[in-house]
Amino acid sequence: MIDLIFLTLVLLCVYLYVCSKVPLATRVIERFLSAELRRDIKLPPGPAQWPIVGNLLQLGQLPHRVLASLCDKYGPLVYLRLGSVDAITTNDPDIIREILLQQDDVFASRPRTLAAVHLAYGCGDVALAPLGPKWKRMRRICMEHLLTTKRLESFMKHRADEAQNLVHDVWCQSQKEDAINMREVLGAFSMNNVTRMLLGKQYFGAESAGKQEAMEFMHITHQLFWLLGLIYLGDYLPFWRWFDPYGCEKKMREVEKRVDDFHSRIIEEHQKRKGNKGQQYEGEMDFVDILLSLPGEDGKEHLDDQDIKALVQDMIAAATDTSAVTNEWAMAEVIKHPNVLKKIQEELDSVVGRDRMVSEHDLAHLNYLRCVVRETFRMHPAGPFLIPHESIRATKINGYHIPAKTRVFINTHGLGRNTKIWDNIDEFKPERHLPAKTGTRVEISHGADFKILPFSAGKRKCPGAPLGVTLVLMALARLFHSFDWSPPDGMRPEEIDTEEVYGMTMPKAKPLLAVARPRIATHLYQ
Ligand code: HEM
Question: What stretches pass through the bilayer (predicted)?
Fold first, then answer.
């Protein structure tokens, strides 16, 4: 389909060039003048550009791989022209440090893409908002009221329940001895954890909110993820919006309306519940309750509904898919490498034993499992790029001119496979992350060396990293402790495929199927 888009695009460009009489001459003059102007300005190196579309046609179906190969060819910092947009890309730790730390003030903004405008309340959220007082206020609400250590601790019991539901679900399915669709069980685990914390309800399992509501919720969140991950040509070629041949903007507006209706219902339910209960006990408040209890701007009694909706949506989008995708990749790599599974289980048996379930308190002591998660992030970061950053003013990197409003694609997939910093890049080898000094805890987010960057750094770094790490470690620890794992009958471990699909997150192309065999006492699964 992308090929078709591109073919149409090329034909359209030719058409525009040939059919319009005046613009052709104007464009030639413009290009000449801009070349003259740019003679003094040294942009970073990069591939040659086509008229109008620039380098857009070169991105292909797996842009992270294409952009990494451009870094191999042109150097650690590459300039691209994407339609009317200046862009740079890098997979190099030193350049990334320069962008995210040394020049954080310049690069911590976000582009106003059409998806962000339609699907994130006019960029009024945290993740897609440009740098400014609104983003600062929304981010502060996240950090001070929602994602504090105390608040996260208060949800520990819910997380333990969901971990038990996960194990119980897999145990029930394992009785049939068929292969289990791991995407489904891991997706339900992440979604239930997030919606319990955010909205106070489960969407899957025994106490779920109801099939109809769960299906609707899943459907709109999938559509939302898909649209947010799309490279929409209208963001780069303004004329594309006149045609919008695939109806993307129409789809965005439809999803915007459905998501908004869904959020309005959630707020209404919470307000009604609050009215019935009077003052709520702190310990039983979910995120929506907390947001409803906060004062608004300029002396207003409450936050605007729109701010609450934008925050809730951000949390759902940022927390669910990222942890589910990471868990599925980790499971795939571990089942593909039985020697790694054996080492994980030896560690679990020694730290936890086989007479009880893993608890969150154990996670800090599972150093080998922590290396497995780091290695998973190296090879399969949740998203192929960080969320695009944008420069707020012109600046220089390594002596090269970077114009204002340059879009920045930090290639985390390319960073983990950069041969200048990693050996045997295609080998899944958790041991490479073991610290030189035994007894030191393995850190899962980036280190000072910027060799992996699962949660980014600087002003825009992920505020949910501690929760994300817990969700990932907990699911994996429970699943590897409670079950032995193998590929479906007739498939050898090394045949498990690791093909990926591009999007805002980067899941395995095909869902992982695996066979589970219980390995601890039966009563522990109940
Ligand atoms: C394994 C799980 C997770 C991974 C790998 C992950 C990774 C990331 C990454 C790479 C970014 C982009 C940073 C940048 O553009 O520089 C990000 C942003 C963000 N994440 Fe996470 N995340 C995870 C879980 C969570 C959770 C659980 C939450 C909240 C409940 C969350 C909330 C956010 C928010 C609000 C942003 C936007 C920050 C901003 O733009 O200021 N994330 N995350």
Answer: none
82 contacts 64 by C-beta, under 8 angstroms:
no
Q: Maximum CA pair distance of the chain?
A: 80
Is residue 104 assigned to a domain? Answer: no
The model's confidence at residue 117, banded by pLDDT at 50, 70 and 90, is: very high
How far apart are the C-alpha atoms of 232 and 2, rounded to whole Å? 11
The whole-angstrom separation of Cα 287 and Cα 460 is 21
In angstroms, the CA 141 to CA 410 distance is 27
Residue 409: strand pairing partners: 89
* Binding-site residues, ligand 1, Cβ < 6 A: 126-127, 139, 142, 314-315, 318-319, 322-323, 326, 382-383, 386-387, 454-456, 460-464, 467-468, 472
Q: How far is the CA of 383 from the centre of ligand 1 (A)?
A: 10
Distance, in Å, from the CA atom of 269 to the CA atom of 291, rounded to the nearest integer, reads 14
pLDDT band at 298 (very low <50, low <70, confident <90, very high): confident
Determine, yes or no, domain membership for 405.
yes
| Residue 180, beta-bridge partner list | 514
- Rounded-to-integer distance, Cα 169 and Cα 231, Å: 37
User: Which residues span the domain enclosing 249?
Assistant: 133-525
Q: Are 138 and 128 in contact (CB under 8 A)?
A: no
Q: Identify any residues that bridge with 513 across adjacent strands, giving them in sequence order.
A: 181
**pLDDT tens digit string along 14-43?**
445 444 444 555 555 555 555 545 556 899
Q: Which atom of ligand 1 is nearest the CA belonging to 377? A: 5
Q: CA 161, 167, 170 angle in degrees (round to 5)?
A: 140
pTM over 0.85: yes
Number of structural domains the chain divides into:
2
State the average pLDDT over residues 66-72.
98
| Count of positions (residues) in the chain | 526
Mark whether 36 and 155 lie in a shared domain. no
Minimum-distance ligand 1 atom for the alpha carbon of 467: 27
Q: How far apart are CA 187 and CA 162, in angstroms?
A: 12
CA angle 326-329-335, nearest 5°?
A: 135
Q: CA nearest 305: which of 318, 319, 317, 294? A: 294
Q: Are residues 19 and 153 in the same domain?
A: no
Question: Quick one: average pLDDT of 491-514?
Answer: 95
The model's pLDDT over 134-188, given as tens digits with 9 standing for 90+, comes to: 999 999 999 999 999 999 999 999 999 999 999 999 999 999 989 999 999 999 9
Judged against a pLDDT cut of 60, whether residue 283 lies above it is answered with no
DSSP 3-state of 86 = strand
Same domain membership, residue 294 and residue 416 = yes
Q: Within 10 A of 330 (CB to CB), how many other CB atoms are there?
A: 29
Protein residue with least CA distance to atom 20, ligand 1: 462
SS3 per residue for 58-83: HCCCCHHHHHHHHHHHHCCCEEEEEC
Lowest mean pLDDT among 318-322, 325-329, 435-439, 454-458: 435-439
